[in-house]
Design goal:
Layout lengths: L1 H21 L4 H39 L22
Helix pairs in contact: 1-2
Length: 87
């Protein structure tokens, strides 16, 4: 999950740094706000990805707990064979 945190933090830093620089703020202020944004974006990504991973884990668990259809039971969608008609 650290890969997601690194990418989210980097994206937040670059986004806020660029927006602050375009707004005319000096470099010191822009870098400090970018660092705070990197932390905030990483925390948000951590919260979101924990939710995603826990739901994926729950989905896999429920899929494994679902009863599997037995091989002996005939499939309802399969066509039934009829014996040839005798004349």
């Amino acid at each position: 999950m650290s890969n997601y945190l690194i990418h989210a933090g980097g994206a937040g830093f670059l986004l806020v740094l660029a927006l602050n620089h375009l707004a005319g703020n000096d470099w010191g202020t822009s870098i400090m706000r970018g660092c705070v944004a990197a932390l905030a974006f990483a925390m948000l990504a951590r919260w979101f990805m924990r939710g995603v991973f826990s739901e994926l884990h729950l989905s896999l668990y429920e899929q494994q707990m679902r009863p599997q259809p037995s091989a002996e039971a005939p499939d309802a969608d399969a066509p039934q064979e009829t014996p040839p008609a005798e004349d």
